[in-house]
Specification:
The protein is of the alpha+beta class. The chain contains 13 helices and 14 strands. The N and C termini lie far apart (45 Å).
């Protein structure tokens, strides 16, 4: 797989080991040399160039924010924006530019650090301003990387008012650092929007095999998997273990739905429709 596509699937930021699972060492070196991906240090690779985001922020005397700031913090996101996202104080007068997506916000002490929004402010802005799936993926990533604690996120969203506050509180209520990547976060967002109550990485024992599926509804007996051949294709043994695991779950009574990356990331409405149909069938059976 092309390193840019691999990084996109991994959330825009990834370690060498994670990237190497989807592409070759040589392809990574070539992509870095050609500038299509960036080696941003500490064994981290990114699609977004930090200097590009910094220049955009400097053009308006503002701060990198939202998905741009999340990526700069080293968190995986559902999708990087086409232009760097920047915020400026609400009353600041700046010229219109096409190089960045600029929002005016009320910034408080502690909301920024250097030329980007702080970790907590970044999560809050994404949760309040972006679609639910994007906000949830950022919140999950921040928790997964221990950049924000659940209790401080819960306390912070409680202070927000209006529609932005409602959106942020919804994200905080479902945010969970156990999600492995934005792929899983986006699947969980679709499940929530379909009215489901699912738990990430819930332990299931099936025919003596202990597994932790991506999402589990233990009451309804439903398992949702964010699944893709690309994550198994280089390791035949891993693929065979996955098949054995799937069979064990099905024969012990679990309803297992497996969704590909393209379905979840590109056609979430189809995923939601499938989930609603399944649960309607389960309710009718009872």
């Amino acid at each position: 797989m092309d390193p840019v596509e691999a990084l996109t699937r991994l959330g825009g930021v990834a370690s060498f080991a994670a990237l190497r699972e989807l592409t070759s060492r040589r392809a990574i070196r070539t992509a870095v040399a050609g500038g299509s991906i960036k080696h941003i240090g500490r064994d981290r690779y990114s699609i977004l160039a930090p200097d590009q985001a910094r220049r955009a922020a400097m053009l308006v005397n503002g701060y990198a924010a939202h998905l741009t700031a999340a990526s700069l913090h080293g968190w995986e996101v559902r999708a990087l924006p086409p232009r760097p996202q920047v915020v400026i104080p609400r009353k600041r007068v700046v010229p219109k530019i096409s190089a960045a997506e600029v929002r005016r916000v009320d910034l408080r002490p502690g909301d920024v650090g250097g030329w980007a929004t702080s970790p907590l402010a970044t999560v809050l802005m994404c949760a309040a301003d972006l679609p639910f799936a994007d906000g949830l993926a950022v919140a999950d990533s921040a928790l997964r990387h221990d950049a924000v604690e659940q209790r401080e996120l819960t306390a912070a969203v409680a202070r927000l008012r209006g529609e932005r506050g409602d959106r942020a509180r919804r994200v905080a209520a479902y945010a969970d650092g156990r999600a492995a990547n934005p792929f899983e976060s986006t699947l969980r967002a679709a499940a929530v929007e379909a009215g489901l109550s699912v738990i990430p990485q819930y332990e299931v024992n099936a025919r003596g095999i202990v597994v932790h599926p991506d999402l589990v509804d233990p009451i309804a007996g439903v398992i949702l998997e964010a699944d893709s051949w690309e994550f198994h294709g280089k390791d035949r043994e891993a693929w065979e273990r996955d098949c054995e695991r799937y069979t064990a779950l099905v024969v012990t009574g679990w309803r297992v739905l497996r969704f590909t990356w393209h379905e979840v990331m590109r056609r979430p409405e189809q995923v939601r429709a499938c989930l609603r149909e399944l649960y309607a069938e389960l309710q009718a059976a009872h």
